[in-house]
Amino acid sequence: MSESVEERPALLTASSVQVSLGDRQLLAQTDLTIGADEAVAVLGPSGSGKTTFLACLAGLRIPTSGSVRLLDRELTEMSSTQRAQVRLDSIGFVFQHADLLPELSPVENVMLPGLLKGGDPDGVRADAEWLIADLGVRTAADTAYLSGGEAQRLALARALITRPSLLLADEPTGALDRATRDEVLEVMFAKIRSEQMAAVIVTHDEQVAASADRTIELATVRSVDAT
Ligand SMILES: Nc1ncnc2c1ncn2[C@@H]1O[C@H](COP(=O)(O)OP(=O)(O)OP(=O)(O)O)[C@@H](O)[C@H]1O
């Protein structure tokens, strides 16, 4: 059993985050504090701002008001270049659709963030091959021919190659059938736990939410313990 958030430094603290869109206020001063090995699911009705919240946590979007601290650094006060560096150093992303580059082979897709981070190409390739095998992807020669589940596992490998402290996932199983969803969920949470990463996972899926340590619901902004 891991110790509680209160007993250890937070990896990520979002405080009173709000985004104004004309006369609409998204996120209603949302708060979220997560520890270094905690997985939190973000639920909420369509349009409640889940993707927008994730973008704020990643420094892709600066909230109209509120604060986002990652590894004790305030993202809202950084330049876009500094925020891009924080993302490369510390954050891995998984989206609803794997968004792989079909021009690149599966291994090259996974290598990309590692190379951008300045890794030695031979070392990055070996690590990419290891991650791909570890996540159970049977590497097809052509990225375009991967199944939905394989593509999503590959996207997870791509997110993990930089060994991020924080994994951000937006509907990572939203495009998969139930059986494939269960397989992807299993490898994703196994990795989150074995790598002792923090994760924030936007989802509509109660099964995904139940796999997380905790759930927050936007709109009502209340904390609900997953069972
Ligand atoms: N840059 C923007 N300009 C105008 N409206 C925006 C912008 N970004 C987001 N929105 C609006 O903010 C609202 C919240 O969008 P968001 O994608 O964050 O919701 P969501 O909860 O993730 O929705 P879903 O579950 O359908 O994916 C939507 O009404 C969207 O159209």
UniProtKB/TrEMBL annotation:
GO molecular function annotations of the record: ATP binding; ATP hydrolysis activity; transmembrane transporter activity
Record-annotated ABC transporter domain positions: 12-226
PROSITE patterns assigned: ABC_TRANSPORTER_1, ABC_TRANSPORTER_2
UniProt superkingdom: Bacteria
SUPFAM superfamilies: P-loop containing nucleoside triphosphate hydrolases (SSF52540)
Gene Ontology CC entries for this record: plasma membrane
Name assigned to this protein: Putative ABC transport system ATP-binding protein/lipoprotein-releasing system ATP-binding protein
